[in-house]
Model the fold of this input.
Amino acid sequence: MIKLKNLEIQNFRHIQNQTVEFGNFITVITGLNGTGKSSILGWIAQLCDYKPKEMTILDTYFKEDYKNVFRFCPNNDYNQEYEVKFNYLSTDLLLEESKQINTRYVKKTDKSPERYRTDFDGRGKALNHPIIYLGLKRLIPLATENKISTFKTTISTKYNNTYSNLIREIFVLVNDNVNPEAIKSTNKKLLAIQTDSYSHLGNSAGQDNISQIISSLISFEILKEKQGSDFKGGIILIDELDSTLYAASQCKLIDILFRYARKLNIQIIFTTHSIEILEYLNDKVGNDTTVNYFNLVDGKVKNTINPSFEYVKRKIKNEVSESEKNEKISFICEDEVAQYFSKNLLNNSELKKIINIEKGPFPDGTLISMAESNHSIFKNVYYILDGDVKEKFKQKKIPPRTVFLPTKLRPESIMYDFIKNLSDDDEFWDDEKNFTKSTCFNNYTNNGKGSHKNWFVDPVNKRFFGSGYSRLFNRWKKDNLNEVEEFLNNIRKIL
Done:
């Protein structure tokens, strides 16, 4: 298996000493116009020269001609020499090896008028790795092309169905019959969308764009199927991924790209200016997904790796940051005890700064009704139910914007059982002041109705339980870190 790790650009036009990082599956290159984003895709395309003769479903090879990727300027480029360096991982069985390959553009000379080209390691050596490059030619509408004809493709019924299902998924075509129609024009080949009501000439630019991306995914799926254990991955390069697509389709497309990148273990690298895509990817950034933001600083490109979404959004929209809003998100719980417990669980987490816990008294049934209501007054309110309410939702869906406190008991019962089972020598007790298990549970040992609540609010006990029961809750949390983290993660999910 081969995976690109990063690209080191020593010298290329106005990019100097910058590194582009690649995710295991998804790599985003975004930033200002004129910063060289598309050129990065060009360097990657020229890195690869796939030797086997397998064809894509569009009857093209898994590589890209130099002339389709770069256009060098006689005035500014012919007298230059550009050099970049790729680092990649090559995995053979259990052995993982880091490797490098240098790529350079050798300047054109009077004696060698055709010499300007990309040269690998000074010997014409390239990486034997399959790529599909989708440049901006794919965005030329078919209706504007002079020569359009059909061609035969070897795609099987199985992958015809895959194509149709993916088209329907992205464009939410519920009732339409969708079939691929193999079309070639002056500038491109593609599988166009054919339905009961229109053919390739009725395709929008967005449908055209998506069709070519899906064709690339299917081509790699077929390649992997043919090669089996010999398949070493591949790369799909897409310039301006979001062009011609409305926001919902952009996000659906990202889901599909993730799905196929993982399934096929390929890398998908694209440029975009879409704020919707960048926001959608915000919580996916990590080893599998990497974002590179290209900015201009004193006329030179600076790449920021995995910046925050807010940073990128401000840069793309050229806006100054607004003042921080202090409004907190409201969570309502049943009573004061649940309020104390919830607040304590939020301590030492980032959630404490953004959440306000409010108490009832509301019985759990009232909170559930509020959570299930469609009334606008409850639209932005969240709910915390005691753990003993979980039993009511064994066979039905949990209400929206709702989480449960830890365990399947109410807070008083949780603490009663926990403290009662502590050792007599536990740090929780204060032998000097005779706050012991014996005095703590005096008159509250029969587990009768109300004994847990009465024990919890006993004036003597409350004095040793700490302000807001903090000492009591903190002792329980010390032994129940997994339950605490699960509660916090449940809140993060619904937010």
